Amino acid sequence: MKLSSKIQRCGLSPMRQFYPREMAAKARGVRIHHLNIGQPDVETPQAFFDAVRDFDAPVVAYPPAPGEERYVEALRTYYAGMGCSLEREDILATFGGSEALEIAMACILDEGDEVLVPEPFYPNYTTFINVTGGRIRPIPTSPEEGYRFASRERIEPLINHRTRAILVATPGNPTGVVLSEEEMRLLADIARERDLFLISDEVYREIVYTGEKATMLALSGAEENVVIIDSVSKRFSTTGARVGALISRNRELMAQALKWAQGRLCITALDQTGAARMYETLGEDYFSSVREEYRIRIEAAVAALEEIPGVRFTSPQGAFYLMAALPVDDTEKLQYFLLDEFQDRGETMMYAPGAGFYADPEQGRDKIRLACVKNAAELTRAIELLGLGIAAYHRKNGN
Fold first, then answer.
1. Which residues are registered as beta bridge partners of 371?
2. 3-state secondary structure 97-120
3. How far apart are CA 264 and CA 106, in angstroms?
4. Which terminus of the chain is less hemmed in, N or C, by CB atoms within 10 Å?
5. Do residues 353 and 12 make contact, with C-beta atoms less than 8 angstroms apart?
6. CA 333 – CA 328 distance, rounded (Å)
């Protein structure tokens, strides 16, 4: 039977594709340090669990398709704290940031349409764009330039009659790049002048190591162009709750997005209740403490990577990821080696190979993304294992 060419254009997740080998290694008694998936070990706030326990409705009924009123109002208050006044119609509750991206792409892309995306990029962008018939046109960046991309000279030559949007993440996954206010303004100006959507993935907004917190929504003059992807997953370390939001003042877009929301009925009631309670009770003190913990982790990861000969990387400004080039021919092959053949004192480690973060996989063949989601001591040990594994890999291959 015939399968969709759209889904066949999508690849497996570079963060999750090694699961069978991972299970086999664990069955052999090997302990694995997981730096492959952005799953923080920072504790979920007690407020989430308290809200779920306090839920006392006699029936867990369908919430409204656009979102529970309490959750939407909590988001309005949160954005008002950044100087952004939103109406209820500007917010659509989603199953995490992932569904928000999926809905946005379904609403704006036809077959053959293009989205400009700074490269390297979050691999699931490829899936969400490809299944709608679109394609990514990458905006090339390099670690030598700190992965900066926001310039007219770099972006405008890539725009053509099929371009529908610019999709950016700030702070960035996997690079940790944080856009400055001037860069945000430039992107908004280009989007407005070229009649494009500017989709800003801001799920790591609070994790900026210099402490600033910004949103594209605060930019005036591009209200019809800006679309925000948001989520509680990383903000409150609740990745399993799957509560996010699609946010835009473009009423035509949001009216179309509501069709999708009604088709999938609703977002889970209990998770929205827990998310609302966290927004209502947690503030800057909470975010400051979490940000400081991630800063310590990033510094530990940087120090450990600097001990491995031949590794090249740029220290991130935000989020909790780090992209690095390794002195190997293929980081996917290295990951299989680490799981199948390598261990040191009964331990090995996992990362996300870089090929899936690029439109042309060959450009990422020697690169990896590390998710700095473990404590500093475990990060240091995991990266030590990476260095030992690289040395063992070279010995095996006669290098």
1. 321
2. HHHHHHHHHHHHCCCCCEEEEEEC
3. 14
4. N
5. no
6. 9
- Report the predicted TM-score, pTM, of the whole model to 2 decimal places: 0.94
Alpha-carbon distance of 314 to 172, in angstroms, equals 13
75/29 Cα distance (integer angstroms): 45
In contact, 269 and 104? CB cutoff 8 Å: no
d(Cα 248, Cα 92) in Å, to the nearest integer?
Answer: 9
- Cα distance between residue 227 and residue 199, in whole Å: 5
Residue 286 has which token pair?
């909470």
Task: Split the chain (399 residues) into runs of 10 and give each run's mean pLDDT.
Answer: 82 73 93 93 95 94 96 98 96 97 97 97 94 95 91 97 98 95 96 98 95 89 96 95 97 97 95 97 95 96 97 94 96 96 96 94 95 95 98 90
Q: And the tokens for 20?
A: 């069978």
Expressed in percent and rounded to 5, the helix, strand and coil fractions of the chain are: 45, 15, 40
The beta-strand segments (E) located in 1-159 are 31-34, 91-94, 114-119, 135-140
- Token pair, residue 231, equals 């989520």
Q: Which amino acid is at 117?
A: V
